[in-house]
Amino acid sequence: EGTWQLSKNEKHPQEMTTIIYNATIVTLDNEDQVMQGAMVFDNKQILAIGNFEELKQKYQDAKLIDADERVVFPGFVNAHGHYYGMFSRGMDTKDTPAKDFEEVLQKLWFRLDRCLDEASVRLSAKVCLLDALSAGTTTIVDHHASPNYIQNSLKAIYEETKKAGIRSSLCYEVTDRNGEEQMKMGVKENLDFMRYAAQQQEEAVKQGQTPDIQGQFGLHALLTCSDETLKYCNQELKQVIKEIGLHGGFHLHVTEGIADQIRSVERYQARVVERLCKYLFNGIDQSKTLLAHCIDLSDEDIKQLSELNLKIVHNPSSNMNNAVGVTKVNKMLENGIQLCLGTDGMNSDMILEHKTLYLLHKHNQKDPGAFSVQAYEMLKNNGKFATQLFGGQKIGVIEVGAVPDIVITKYRNPTPMNRFNIPWHIMFGMQPGCAWYTICQGKVLVQEGNIVSMNPKQVQKEAQKETPNVWGRLDGIISFDKKKQE
């Protein structure tokens, strides 16, 4: 099944080419083609897909990788992550268990983020990058917070993602919870990084490559942002758009829990979407804006958002973990909203997240036939959004001219695989940590199941050494329970 594709571009002899052969190729494009054969790429683009013997004859100097009948996908995209959250693993907050999401924030995340310095921010990112590489995730749209290390924090993370070999869109979460000075520092960090990203993108384009960097404007949530702060963010981003254009839109959490709506109405006599449209989005193109979660929205809220051409990122694992409810995905799809899939820092594995997504909505709707194809389409939507966000070549598909982001999975399909049954092979056949090879921008990052762009053992040792320092700082930040007692 599927059609062979040959590039019209002539090869420059100095550029290294690679052929993956003996592969079952799943394109994840609009046609959902499944092909038996080979593909060739360099460090700029996928050059051809076709018969191995013919490609080997045309590209005689190419390096060869035998997929050994494994299934090959485009590199996966995570539409919402948190590099900074790694040190929460196994951590004792020395508080009573959270009773709701607002307490989860107060007892854990609003304390942990204040413990992070440059060393721990870099290490947290590095551990998450190891997880991403093992899962075949080659693009991550991240949302960062480190109130005591704001300036240059995004550039530090980008330096680590570049070393690891994957592409990232980064932003810093603006919030009022640490005072006006830090709020404005967060705004400045977003704008500075957007300018820096624009410069890096220009260099990549000159070299004929799709950029590995993008900057968005991050905010935490309207739960911790006043109307004045929203207006300030709007004004500041408009100034930068005049300088460099709209490279990346807003990236923020919206109604992750009911508290977001409750506090908004209590403090500002308006619902979250009303405040967003009135103060933050006013006069700015929202086509590159990402709203994470969007659980507690009315039908009218959803209709209003659908008119803005923005994207909503569903994070099922995280939402289940925090017991905050289920996003109204069917209503959003009915209104034509493009839904993407994220992990919210729970993991960096899109196959694992896809499985959770698939099961959650069947269970929630009490319908065994529900949401199978839609879950698969959300996985594909991540690539479409990444293409729009980073500009240039297509991301998240295997076709001639697309970026050479490829994952040879460990999965060999034991039953026929075709365009009509791909979702069920992903759901019932593939397993988390699926990458046999991970390739981003034509560079091999994982080879035969081993990460080669980073030193996993060294990163693990560094993280184990740094953890007592981070956890020790957490002990010095008064717990939520003690605050209530005082």
Outline the structure in words.
- The chain is of the alpha/beta class and 486 residues long.
- It folds into 2 domains: 5-74 and 397-451, Urease, subunit C, domain 1 (Roll), CATH 2.30.40.10; 76-390, Metal-dependent hydrolases (TIM Barrel, Alpha-Beta Barrel), CATH 3.20.20.
- Helix content is 41%, strand content 18%.
- It has 16 helices and 19 strands.
- The strands form 3 sheets. Strands 1, 2, 3, 4, 5, 6, 16, 17, 18 and 19 form a 10-stranded mixed sheet that branches. Strands 11-12-13-14-15 form a 5-stranded parallel sheet.
- Strand 17 (435-440) and strand 18 form a beta hairpin.
- Helix 6 packs across helix 8 (272-280).
- The radius of gyration is 22 Å and the shape is globular.
- Mean pLDDT is 94; it is low at 6-14.
- Keywords: Hydrolase.
Descriptive labels:
single chain; 486 residues; Urease, subunit C, domain 1; 2 domains; five-stranded parallel β-sheet; 41% helix; MTA/SAH_deaminase; Amidohydro-rel; hydrolase activity, acting on carbon-nitrogen (but not peptide) bonds
CATH architecture of the largest domain: Alpha-Beta Barrel
Radius of gyration: 22 Å
Which strand-content bin applies to the residues? Answer: 15-25%
The largest pleated sheet is described as: 10 strands, mixed
How far from one another are the termini? 68 Å
Protein name: Amidohydrolase family protein
Keywords: Hydrolase
Organism: Trepomonas sp. PC1
Domain Amidohydrolase-related: 71-444
